[in-house]
């Protein structure tokens, strides 16, 4: 889904660039080919920026990394600057939501003022799961030996019932074939 959406955005960008350069129409195959070229070009530029950023010991790229990546790809920065000054900027045709969509935080940090936050000791980090309070521990059903044997008997019954069902279903399928 993410790749399809980004590819669609690249395709719209290619069509707008072609229209800004004076083209009236473009065939679908030519537009797809130009979209592929633009995608590979941008991926190469991103890889180059990433390499130079790591080479200089940074995690976030800066404008110098982009310039070095352009030089690595053989792009003359003066020609690029002339192109930018001679062509009018084209605004994108569609509204673009923030991309990629941020996901909900699944970390279960205790909320300020919650029961867990109040009972949590200072030396216990917030990223650890919530603590079971002493009252909840008392309320929990204890697994006694009698209860454990009852669970084992039930699981054996369910397992034997499952096998009987499997045998009957195989028999039913074989009798239908006759």
Automatic annotation (TrEMBL):
Subcellular location, record wording: Nucleus
SMART domains noted in UniProt: BTP
InterPro entries assigned: BTP, Histone-fold
CDD domains associated with the record: HFD_TAF3 (cd22916)
Record GO terms (molecular function): p53 binding; protein heterodimerization activity
Keywords assigned: Nucleus, Transcription, Transcription regulation
GO cellular component, one term: transcription factor TFIID complex
Major site of localization recorded for this protein: nucleus
Pfam assignment, any one: Bromo_TP
UniProt-listed Gene3D superfamilies: Histone, subunit A
Domain Bromodomain associated: 3-79
This protein's record includes keyword Transcription regulation: yes
One GO biological process term: positive regulation of transcription by RNA polymerase II
Keyword Coiled coil: no
Name of the protein in question: Bromodomain associated domain-containing protein
Species the sequence originates in: Chloebia gouldiae
